[in-house]
Amino acid sequence: MIAALIAVSVAASALGAWPEARDTWRGLRHPGHPRAAKPVVMSWLVWTAILGIGGTAALYDGQLAAAVFTLAEGAGCVLVAVLAMRIPADRRDEPARIPLPGGRIRLDVLCLPGAAAGLVLLAVARAPGPTVAVSIGTDVLAYVPTVAHSWRYPHSEAWSSYAWYAVSAAAALAAVRHVSLTAVGYPAYLAVAETVVAAVILGRRGVTPPA
User: How far apart are CA 44 and CA 146, in angstroms?
Assistant: First the structure.
C-alpha cells in the first residue's frame, strides 16, 4: 500500500508540472494566447532549491514517502522555472507592489531577502527536522508573490497544476507511518498551500476577465 501511495504521489507531481509547463511554453510560442501561463520566476526558482534540500533532509531521516514526494515536486519546478525565465521581461505580468514609507516596492523583491536568508540557514541547519522547518518557512515566503499573482492575474496560472500537486501531497501524507516533522511537514503544508492557490485561481476567474 505504501509503495502504491508513493507511486500515486510521483504520478500526481508529474501531472502537476505538466499544465503549468505546457501553458508557459504556449505563451512563449504564441504571445497573447488566452491560456498562456506567466509563472512568477522568483517563486519557482526558490521552490526548486528548497524542495531539493527539504527532500534530501527527509531522505536522510529515512522518510521515504516525504522524500520522494518533495524531490518529485522539485523536479517539476525545475522545468517550470526554466520556462518562466525565458519569458521576456516586457511580456511578464506587472508584479504586485505594496506601499512602504519610501514608495511602493515589488512584492517578489520584498520576499526575496527572506527567502535568501532561509536558504542560508539551511546550509548550517544540520539536523533534518530543523532543515525541513526552515524549508517550509522559506517556501511560504516564495508562495506570497504567486498567491498575489493568482489573485490579480488568475488566467496567467494553471489551476490544475496546483490541484494535482495537492493530490500528490495528500498521497504522500497518507503513506506516512511514523509521524515526525520530516515525514508530515512538507506533505501537510503543501496539501493546504496548493489547494489554496488552486481555489484562488478558480474563484478569481469567475470575477476577473482574461487579459
Answer: 9
CB 150 within 8 A of CB 175: no
| 8 A C-beta contact, residue 161 and residue 19 | yes
Span between the terminal Cα atoms of the chain, in Å: 45
Which is it for strands 97-100 and 103-106: parallel, antiparallel or unpaired? Answer: antiparallel
Distance between CA atoms of residues 145 and 110, nearest Å: 9
- How many Cα atoms sit within 13 Å of 21 on the Cβ side? 14
Q: Does residue 111 have a pLDDT over 90? A: no
Q: Which runs of consecutive H residues, i.e. helices, occur in 61-127?
A: 64-85, 107-124
Residue 98, phi then psi, degrees to nearest 5: -125, 150
CA count, 13 A, side-chain hemisphere, 133? 9
pTM: 0.86
pLDDT digits (tens, 9 = 90+) for 125-150: 667 888 888 888 888 888 888 999 99
Round the average pLDDT of the chain to a whole number and report it: 88
Domain ranges (residues) in the chain? 2-205
